[in-house]
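On clarity, I found the account of how folds are encoded harder to follow than it need be. Since the whole study asks how a given chain folds, the encoding of that fold should be made plain. For illustration, here is how one protein appears when written out as sequence plus structure tokens:
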Amino acid sequence: MSRDKGNAAPAWVAAWLRPWWPDAEKTPNSRPGRDILGTPGTAIEVKTEMRWSHKWLAQAAKYAGDGEIALVVYLPPGCGETAVGDALVVLPLRQVMPLLTAAGYAPQPTEVT
């Protein structure tokens, strides 16, 4: 992936998220931390590389505070500014199941492992 796409993609994602989080904005390139600011409850990393890396989830988790969901928005090759809604979102299954339960898509678990 081009470095230009990697630098621009967080702004595209922030703009796409603004109907839900009006204060969503790209973190300046020189500032360490999560890629998107103004999205309470989440720590979002935006990635555009050609190959997936499991290390990205660890990076997002490192920036997540207590109770925040760490997730990676992955714009694979062919998914650019006009297709941000088709980007992939990856987060650990242990974070997905409580969300699915709260939304009514999964029953309450009998026991949690």
